[in-house]
C-alpha cells in the first residue's frame, strides 16, 4: 500500500477550512504544500501556502509535505520549517553546485525534517544518485513543475522504474514520491513502477467522494 499526499494548490480560499477538513477525514497521509516563487516557476503561491500552513497547524495533525519550487531555497527552508513539516523537498535544478545541495540537506535536517530532492521530467537520474545516501526521499515530477491540472508525461514512468531498481540494488531506504497529473486511472502503473507516495490534487478534489478516491489510490 502506498501513501497519499494531497496537493492543496487548487483549494479555493473561500472553502479552504472545510476542504482541508474533508481531506483529513478522507485519511490522506500528508498535506502537500506547493511553494512557488514566481521565479523558479512562473506562478507564485507563497502567501497562499503560508496561510494554508497556518490553518493546518491549528486544525490538523496530518503531517506537512513541503515542496519548494523556488530559487532561494535556503530562505524558504527557514520560512516553512516553523510549521514543523515532516518533509521538505527542494529542486536539484535550483542548486548552483554540490556544496549548495549538501548545505540545504544539512539545514533541513537541523530543522528536524526529512529531506527530499525533486527533479524535473527532463533531469537525468544520474545527477542525483550521489545524494541518495544523505536524504529520505526523491520526488519525481511527472509534469513540468509550476502548475496544477497537467497531464502526466508517460516517459517519466520508466524513470521511476529505473530509480526503484537503483535504490534496491544499492540497498538504500530512499522513498520515491511522484507528483503530477495523478488520478485513479494512472495510479496503478505508478505504483507498479515503484512509487511509495502519490501526490494528487485535482484527482482527489474533483472527485465526488474524497475518502473513496484516497482509499483507491492507496490500495
Strand-helix topology:
Layout: E1 3-7, H1 16-25, E2 30-36, H2 46-59, E3 64-69, H3 73-81, E4 87-91, H4 98-110, E5 114-119, E6 137-141, H5 156-169, E7 175-179, H6 184-193, E8 197-200, H7 202-205, H8 210-218
Parallel strand pairs: 1-2, 1-8, 2-3, 3-4, 4-5, 5-6, 6-7, 7-8
How would you portray this structure in words?
The protein has 219 residues and is α/β, with parallel strands linked by helices. The chain has helices spanning 16-25, 46-59, 73-81, 98-110, 156-169, 184-193, 202-205, 210-218, and strands spanning 3-7, 30-36, 64-69, 87-91, 114-119, 137-141, 175-179, 197-200. The protein has a single domain (3-218), classed as TIM Barrel (Alpha-Beta Barrel). It has eight helices and eight strands; from the N terminus they run E-H-E-H-E-H-E-H-E-E-H-E-H-E-H-H. It has an eight-stranded parallel beta barrel, surrounded by six helices. The longest helix is centred in the first third of the chain and has 14 residues, at 46-59. The model has no long low-confidence stretch (mean pLDDT 95).
User: What profile does the largest beta sheet have?
Assistant: 8 strands, parallel, barrel
Helical residue percent? 25-40%
The ordered string of helix (H) and strand (E) elements is: EHEHEHEHEEHEHEHH
For the record, the count of structural domains works out to: 1
Distance between the termini: 5 Å
Under CATH, the homologous superfamily reads: Aldolase class I
Shape: globular
Q: How many helical stretches?
A: 8
Derived from helix and strand composition plus strand pairing, the structural class reads alpha/beta
Amino acid at each position: 500500500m502506498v501513501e497519499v499526499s494531497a496537493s492543496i494548490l487548487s483549494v479555493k480560499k473561500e472553502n479552504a477550512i472545510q476542504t482541508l477538513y474533508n481531506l483529513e477525514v478522507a485519511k490522506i497521509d500528508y498535506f502537500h504544500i506547493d511553494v512557488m516563487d514566481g521565479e523558479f516557476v512562473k506562478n507564485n503561491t507563497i502567501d497562499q501556502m503560508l496561510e494554508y500552513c497556518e490553518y493546518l497547524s491549528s486544525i490538523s495533525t496530518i503531517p506537512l509535505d513541503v515542496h519548494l519550487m523556488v530559487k532561494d531555497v535556503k530562505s524558504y527552508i527557514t520560512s516553512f520549517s516553523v510549521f514543523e513539516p515532516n518533509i521538505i523537498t527542494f529542486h536539484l535544478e535550483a542548486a548552483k553546485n554540490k556544496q549548495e545541495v549538501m548545505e540545504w540537506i544539512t539545514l533541513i535536517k537541523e530543522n528536524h525534517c526529512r529531506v527530499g530532492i525533486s527533479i524535473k521530467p527532463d533531469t537525468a537520474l544520474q545527477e542525483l544518485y550521489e545524494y541518495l545516501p544523505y536524504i529520505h526521499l526523491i520526488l519525481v515530477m511527472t509534469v513540468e513543475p509550476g502548475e496544477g491540472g497537467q497531464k502526466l508525461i508517460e516517459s517519466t514512468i520508466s524513470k521511476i522504474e529505473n530509480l526503484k531498481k537503483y535504490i534496491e540494488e544499492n540497498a538504500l531506504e530512499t522513498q520515491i514520491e511522484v507528483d503530477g497529473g495523478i488520478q485513479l486511472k494512472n495510479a496503478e502503473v505508478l505504483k507498479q513502477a515503484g512509487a511509495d507516495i502519490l501526490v494528487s490534487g485535482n484527482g482527489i478534489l474533483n472527485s465526488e467522494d474524497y475518502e473513496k478516491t484516497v482509499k483507491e489510490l492507496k490500495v
